[in-house]
Write a structure and sequence with these properties.
alpha+beta; OB fold (Dihydrolipoamide Acetyltransferase, E2P); Helix Hairpins; 3 domains; four-stranded antiparallel β-sheet; 3 helices; 36% helix
């Protein structure tokens, strides 16, 4: 009987271990190899993606914004005095003239104050007239006195000259000649005093009349103010246009400053558009704009840029230079396109979905034959509404996929059917 050898059993055990290790290593290598295999390129329908060709030439840079048409001339009519709405004569939407009465207010206190101011004015004017007559009579009396003294002085002066000649001829005594000279000198002094008194009296009369005239002027201004407050109870449009709003009701009490109505001129409109903060840096005064009302295109120019931003947008005013199409009215929504500049002799392509100014992105470039597209890195430059400048990564005539390719971020090649 054969006896098995111990060495042969050990060899068989070693071979089993080697086979097992070999199998483990092979499985591991296969797993690593499979893990390193690149995923198969997905197949995409050509009609489902947006493909564009890189071009060279001139590119018009534009910025687009949304907005609305607003009147250039808007007038809010405030209440000038306290009152109660008595009647509303015009409804919103009605064409009005500057002197059209829109509504009527009542305020008995204002009417009473106007009557009292008018009465005070008439009383002050009567006092002024009475004072002027009295002062003129006083002036006349003073002028008469001064004239009498001047006449006496002239006569005395002439008599003194005559007596002086007679005294030289010895026809009268020296005493009579001296008496006549003294009288003439006395009347000269009185005449000077009366002239000065007359001048002072004239100045006093002017001052007194000026004081009374100032009082009359103050009362006249007060009466005019009171009358204007009463007249303001009949609220007028102030400008030619259309009554847009009247946020009050009959019987409502209003205080000074309360907005009673809004009137605008619908024939003079401008566009107010909102531009994103990231794009406003290139917008400037005077740039041409096309305003799309969806019923026609209106040319215009940028006339004002708001210095502040709201909700990440900046308001831009556009003055319209063309005729308004039919249906154009205030608050009509419009699309606006601002022309920034024209770039000459550059490479450009349609703007990718996520393409931003001066940024680098990855795009799928079509290979020869157009059956496949490979991922390339592209550096972008200045952008417009629908186009963007190519700085690096693409050549003229090459085609790229501009659609959103986020679903293929894990592959570098796609097949196109």
């Amino acid at each position: 009987m054969d006896i098995p050898r111990k060495s042969q059993g050990r060899k068989r055990q070693i071979r089993r271990i080697i086979y097992a290790l070999t199998a483990i290593v092979a499985i591991g290598l296969i797993t690593v190899g499979v893990a390193r295999l690149k995923p198969a390129a997905p197949t995409v329908e050509r009609s489902s993606v947006w493909i564009d060709t890189v071009k060279r030439g001139s590119m018009l840079r534009q910025v687009r914004g949304l907005g609305s048409l607003v009147p250039e001339e808007i007038r809010w009519i405030p209440a000038q005095t306290q009152g109660r709405v008595e009647r509303i004569l015009v409804k919103p939407g009605t064409d009005v003239r500057a002197d059209t009465v829109l509504l009527e207010l009542t305020n008995p206190e204002a009417e009473q104050a106007a009557m009292e101011a008018t009465s005070q004015l008439k009383g002050a004017e009567a006092e002024y007239t009475s004072l002027r007559v009295s002062l003129e009579r006083r002036l006349l009396d003073q002028q008469a006195t001064a004239a009498t003294v001047q006449a006496d002085f002239s006569q005395a002066k002439l008599q003194a000259e005559v007596n002086d000649e007679l005294a030289k001829q010895g026809l009268i005594s020296q005493l009579n000649m001296k008496v006549s000279k003294v009288r003439a000198e006395e009347l000269a002094t009185r005449n000077a005093i009366e002239e000065k008194r007359l001048s002072i009296t004239s100045e006093e009369i002017k001052a007194a009349l000026a004081v009374q005239q100032e009082r009359v002027s103050q009362l006249r201004a007060l009466a005019a103010l009171r009358r204007s407050q009463v007249d303001a109870l009949r609220v007028r449009a102030g400008i030619d246009g259309v009554l847009q709003q009247m946020p009050i009701e009959v019987g409502q009490s209003v205080t000074p400053g309360t907005n009673l109505a809004r009137v605008s001129n619908p024939k003079r409109l401008k566009a107010e558009i909102r531009i994103a903060e990231t794009q406003i840096k290139d917008v400037g005064i005077g740039q041409p704009v096309t305003v799309d009302t969806r019923n026609g295109i209106i040319p215009g120019v940028v006339s004002r840029i708001d210095p502040a931003s709201q909700n990440a947008t900046v308001t831009v005013d556009v003055t319209l230079t063309g005729e308004l199409p039919r249906g154009a009215r205030p608050d009509l929504s419009v699309d606006d396109t601002i022309e920034l500049e024209r770039l000459e002799d550059i490479r450009y392509v349609g703007r990718p979905v996520h393409g931003q100014d001066h940024n680098s992105i990855s795009l799928f470039k079509l290979t020869e034959g157009g059956k496949q597209a490979v991922r390339v890195t592209v550096r972008l430059g200045r952008s417009s509404v629908n186009t963007i400048e190519i700085v690096e990564g693409l050549r003229e005539g090459e085609q790229v996929v501009l659609s959103d390719t986020a679903q293929w971020d894990n592959v570098n090649t796609i097949n196109l059917n």
